[in-house]
């Protein structure tokens, strides 16, 4: 964007190419840069053999391909040989595709697209009865929504660190939250927020007690009103923070035990949960404390102008443990079925406070030790660091001024510990395992690396900035928002990718850039094009924490993760007339469907149950039925059902869509409607 074709416009290595070709380029020398991380140990172990290769054939290859020493080093750091696997999983939002992407780090290989808010035929998502029920549960006023805008993914946590059990993702456009079970990497639940139509930030509390959802645009509570004046906005529009109770034993959100806290209509944005000493609080920023409304509602300036007047917006501090006690004591009413603490009550009980934060803030991130809250103002070149202890002292002292809704405000100076001037357009911060913080700079298209200091305000210093291509949004680092950041990498999730990839028409790929942060200087290792919508945020988890199953136990209903009592029984397949409907019981195996002919009368309602009776890993069978708009994927052990009305006489082939054996093409049958 800034016209720096080669990133920062500088050559990307300090050693000249001729020096390299002249014999400087041993892998030992290349690998020696920044090998002080756990994952570098493996590289160090193979240093000798790699050195032999690089000085021999590899040198010729590098020469022929015009690779610089830094390129070779980058290649060695990201290459995962065939048959070997990655050190980390990155789970990225799929933006307005409504899905979730699973990517290996450091290879940056795409491993899976998890269908969530949007029907996805490869996975049968939105076609099987079970997945349709999940999508139906996320309906808005009865309309089943078939898209989503995923932004903020979050792993379940135990003790403030990822535990590898569940994964949550929001849908910004309809204020919904989905639960993914990491045993099978499948979506199991979608809940619709009954208070609002748009959300933004999602985080979990340190032991996954709650999945916290921040509302986004100011909305009349429950959205059913047409009173849209500036006055109505002030009086009746609100924000909210919803604490969805997560039942880890069931793997589901329990709306009955969830609650929300009403907030002023300030357009709450991203949020983060306190940890360790600050556990019990959540921190949410906001971007429209001006209460700007569309021009047409009052004749004022355009919305984006109106919403950028103030030099300070508000960080919201919510004491969720106190709110939880209020809810549990029964002193809270319900709104649209959800326990709801109105603004007045939240203020009176000491649940809610504000702190001014510089200008149009976006990211808010709690440091690994739980002591500080880092806020980035998009229109301010600093990150501002607030001390949790300082905030608590100011609250205890009292005499706080209030906003126009009566919410007490902790003075900026009383909360602030330090500010670091990082560059233009700071957005989001992640933490390394090295006492460093990393902040994305949207306007500068760069990543800033800075040091964490202490309460005295000392030690908070910018170290360097690294250009990325281009317009970086979030960053993700291994366990980079937990109490135990692992370090080693930072991934820049860039929104633009000018001059990075082969042209594919006007919709450019989004660009994920893998950065090595183990050395003195950060280095971009790899560009990964995303061939779909823009991932906003991602989280990176140690592969050792995930224990996915590879074959479902026999007869599994994936929505209960238990044996389906109605599973078709092997050897007892067939078509059965149940009076008002027809039941088909089908087994699937290499390379046949049993039965391979299904006959029904025109107009029959058909309930078709399928059971992949395979027990071998990866023996997946698909099921696609012509004309009836049906596509399924049955992994070994899985049971699914479909329902439809056979409304037209004719012969309709069904076949397996997964190339499962040499006789895969023969794995088919006919539905005969007479
Ligand atoms: S937001 S970068 Cu949801 Cu930060 Cu997009
Ligand atoms: Cu089963 Cu192809």
Keywords:
Immunoglobulin-like, single chain, disordered N terminus, five-stranded mixed sheet, seven-stranded mixed sheet, Methylamine Dehydrogenase, Chain H, binds dinuclear copper ion, alpha+beta, 14 helices, binds (dicuprio-$l^{3}-sulfanyl)-sulfanyl-copper, 674 residues
Walk me through this protein's architecture.
It is a single chain. The chain is 15% helix and 39% strand. The relative contact order is 0.09. Strands 8, 9, 10, 11, 12, 16 and 17 form a seven-stranded mixed β-sheet that branches. Strands 36, 37, 38, 40 and 43 form a five-stranded mixed β-sheet that branches. The chain has 14 helices and 45 strands. The structure holds (dicuprio-$l^{3}-sulfanyl)-sulfanyl-copper (RUQ) and dinuclear copper ion. Dinuclear copper ion (CUA) is lined by residues 591, 621, 656, 658-660, 664, 667.
């Amino acid at each position: 964007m800034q016209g720096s074709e080669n990133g920062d416009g500088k050559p990307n290595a300090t050693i000249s190419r001729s020096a390299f070709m002249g014999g400087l380029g041993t892998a030992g020398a290349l690998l020696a840069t920044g090998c002080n991380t756990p994952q570098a140990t493996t590289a160090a172990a193979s240093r000798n053999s790699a050195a032999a290769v690089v000085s021999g054939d590899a040198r010729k290859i590098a020469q022929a391909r015009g690779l610089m020493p830094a390129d070779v080093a980058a290649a060695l750091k990201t290459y995962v040989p065939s048959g070997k696997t990655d050190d980390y999983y990155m789970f990225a939002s799929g933006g307005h595709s409504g899905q979730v992407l699973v990517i290996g780090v450091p290879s940056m290989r795409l491993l899976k697209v998890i269908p969530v808010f949007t029907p996805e035929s490869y996975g049968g998502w939105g076609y099987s009865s079970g997945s349709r029920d999940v999508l139906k549960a996320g309906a808005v006023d009865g309309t089943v929504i078939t898209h989503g805008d995923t932004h903020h993914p979050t792993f379940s946590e135990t003790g403030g660190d990822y535990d590898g059990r569940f994964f949550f993702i929001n849908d910004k456009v309809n204020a919904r939250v989905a639960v993914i079970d990491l045993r099978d990497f499948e979506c199991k639940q979608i809940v619709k927020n009954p208070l609002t139509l748009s959300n933004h930030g999602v985080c979990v509390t340190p032991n996954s007690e709650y999945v916290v959802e921040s509302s986004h645009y100011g909305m009349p509570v429950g959205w059913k009103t047409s009173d849209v004046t500036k006055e109505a906005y002030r009086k009746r529009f609100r924000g909210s923070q919803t604490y969805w109770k997560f039942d880890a034993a069931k793997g589901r959100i329990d709306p009955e035990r969830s609650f929300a806290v009403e907030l002023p209509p300030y357009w709450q944005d991203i949020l983060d949960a306190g940890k360790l000493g600050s556990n019990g609080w959540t921190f949410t920023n906001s971007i429209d404390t001006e209460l700007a409304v569309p021009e047409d509602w009052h004749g004022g300036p355009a919305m984006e102008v109106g919403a950028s007047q103030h030099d300070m917006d508000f960080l919201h501090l919510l004491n969720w443990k106190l709110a939880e006690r209020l809810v549990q004591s029964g002193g809270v009413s319900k709104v649209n079925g959800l326990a709801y603490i109105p603004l007045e009550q939240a203020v009176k009980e000491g649940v809610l406070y504000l702190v001014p934060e510089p200008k149009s803030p976006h990211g808010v991130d709690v440091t690994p030790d739980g002591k500080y809250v880092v806020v980035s103002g998009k229109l301010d070149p600093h990150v501002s660091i607030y001390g949790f202890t300082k905030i608590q002292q100011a609250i205890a002292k009292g005499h706080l001024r209030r906003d126009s809704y009566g919410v007490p405000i902790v003075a900026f100076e009383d909360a602030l510990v330090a500010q670091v001037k990082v560059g233009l357009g700071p957005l989001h911060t992640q933490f390394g395992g090295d006492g460093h913080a990393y902040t994305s700079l949207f306007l500068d298209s760069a990543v800033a690396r800075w040091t964490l200091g202490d309460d005295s305000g000392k030690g908070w210093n910018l170290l360097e900035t690294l250009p990325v291509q281009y317009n970086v949004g979030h960053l993700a680092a291994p366990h980079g928002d937990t109490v135990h950041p692992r370090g080693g990498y930072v991934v820049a999730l860039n929104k633009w990718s000018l001059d990075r990839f082969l042209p594919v028409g006007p919709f450019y790929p989004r660009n994920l850039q893998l950065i090595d942060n183990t050395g003195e200087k950060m280095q971009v290792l790899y560009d990964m094009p995303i061939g779909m919508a823009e991932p906003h945020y991602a989280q990176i988890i140690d592969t050792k924490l995930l224990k996915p199953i590879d074959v479902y136990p026999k007869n599994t209903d994936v929505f209960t993760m238990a044996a389906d009592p109605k599973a078709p029984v092997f050897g007892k397949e067939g078509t059965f007339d149940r009076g008002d409907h027809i039941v088909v019981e089908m087994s699937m195996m290499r390379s046949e469907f049993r039965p391979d002919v299904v006959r029904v009368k025109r107009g029959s309602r058909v309930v078709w149950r399928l059971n992949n009776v395979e027990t071998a890993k990866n023996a997946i069978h698909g099921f696609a039925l012509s004309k009836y708009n049906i596509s399924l994927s049955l992994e070994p052990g899985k049971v699914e059902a479909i329902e439809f009305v056979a409304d037209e006489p004719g012969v309709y082939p069904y076949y397996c869509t997964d190339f499962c054996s040499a006789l895969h093409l023969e794995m088919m049958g006919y539905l005969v409607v007479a």
